[in-house]
Amino acid sequence: MRKMTTSLKGISVRGWECEKCHEEMIHPEDAQKVLEIEKARKKNLLTVKLRKVGKSNVITVPKIIMETEHLKEGQKFEWKKEGKKFVLIS
Ligand SMILES: [Zn+2]
How far is the CA of 61 from the centre of ligand 1 (A)? Predict the structure, then answer.
């Protein structure tokens, strides 16, 4: 098997290619990532987990959002309460 990078549903993924039959195998982590992105695209919703880092509570911003929303480190955000929802505004 030869390591390669390919595209799955327009998303760059890592994988392996069989040198004999050219069958492609997608890295399971990346296959999972594509599934999540697909789900997010359909629902316009992405689920993240709240984690504790030291004494802070941290919510990660998935790479796909960083890229599509052109977010940068150091950028400021606002949490806005909208009825029962908390909305993050960039
Ligand atoms: Zn093969």
Answer: 38
